[in-house]
Specification:
The complex is a heterodimer of chains A (212) and B (248).
Chain A (H helix, E strand, L loop, with lengths): L3 E11 L2 E12 L3 E5 L6 H8 L7 E6 L2 E2 H10 L1 E4 L11 H11 L6 H10 L15 H14 L4 E5 L7 H16 L3 E5 L11 E4 L3 E2 L3
Parallel strand pairs in A: 3-8, 3-9, 6-7, 7-8
Antiparallel strand pairs in A: 1-2, 1-4, 2-10, 4-5
Chain B lengths: L1 H7 L17 H18 L1 H21 L4 H24 L1 H9 L1 H6 L5 H30 L7 H25 L7 H27 L4 H31 L2
Classes of the chains: A alpha/beta (212), B mainly alpha (248).
Amino acid sequence: MSLSLEARQLACERDGRWLFRGLDLTLNAGDVMRIEGPNGSGKTTLLKVLCGQIVDVEGEVLWQGEPLRRVRSELLANLLYLGHGAGVKAHLSALENLRWYQAISGDQVSSRDCELALARVGLVGFEEVPAIQLSAGQQRRIALARLHLTPRLLWVLDEPFIAIDAEGVAALEQLLAEHARRGGAVLVTTHHALERIEGLRSLRLAGEVAAA
Amino acid sequence: MRQEVRSLDPLDSPGLLRARSSGAGLGTALSATLKRDLLMVTRRPGDALTPLMFFAMVITLFPLGISPDADQLALIAPGILWVAALLAALLSLDGLFRTDHDDGTLEQLMLTPHPLPLLVIAKVAVHWLVTGVPLALLAPLLGLMLSLPEGSYLVLSASVALGSACISLIGAIGAALTVGLARGGMLLALIVLPLFMPVLIFGSGAIVAVIEGGAWLAHLAILGAFLCVALMLAPWAIAASLRVSLHD
């Protein structure tokens, strides 16, 4: 079963302002889509609507052709979401953080896999260090290690490049392209150009004022 | 199922990704969350000790403020012990979901395919284990200080243990409702304190009953009934409150 996420005539209003209106979107296997727009244009809100976190919007979201409100748990079982917060517990080590993620996502917990994933994001030697002692970029890398650790069809990444150095950005762009090649799909908000990704699709949220 | 998941692991095979079905691994998720939260407590024991210190301090104030006379203190001891335990538990409720909310792990917990009402039980259980149970163990010691009559100490512990479980469950609803607010602590107290009244009445009632030779078991039974109802209904209310707080 390949992947299909579809939005039909989405409209979301916040404080008398339409963040987006009449928005249509289709995401299939192999797509990498970048959501663009100025600050406050509703990029994060759109991501949350598309993965079922925000439901009080007009329009419809379909996962594999079924309305999201009916198949929400199926979508969540195939989703990897990295939000604004890194989702890393400051007083736990990188390894302990990842093991928790493995457990709550229903995968078999394996320290070896966690260590391998941490190695891939350049955190060799920092596995047992409490996250609070790591830099912001390193904490972000713990979150990014989940991309290597838990295989999911749909990646929804909200500003994943924050605090990541140039080398890390290149590696992450490559990872996104690789994920798309393997039949996954990526929704990402970022101000980076993502030049290394072929066939990058873009969606621009302009933001418009609601008619009074 | 597990075999299929393993073969999809990108660390082992760079093959094509396939869709997964939901539903597996709820037990693992519950025990992992329970263990993680307990581990957090061992890393920051101060957070768990503060309510206990508060409980002890408040109890110490009463003999100083009223009178060190044993007869007078014994009269008001059941009520004082219970009110202080209740306030101590309330003090720790504000942090129940706040740290998880701030670092983004609460959002991740809500994005698992597992039912949220069950996952929050793990968090509430940890709150009770590190607040309610120690309060119940400490209460007899402080009861001694207030000249609580002999023979009522076991009932005191039992009533605080049962009652604090209700407080953890009911209080978690308020904690979930106020998690998105910058200064939710005061509002939390206003929301949940009225809901604690029945627990307080029957909790201190059990101790008074055992001192006066009444039917203390009936009071404990009612506390147990409260706990059963709270266990059935509170998880749904907590989950719904979290959804409201995070995605309004």
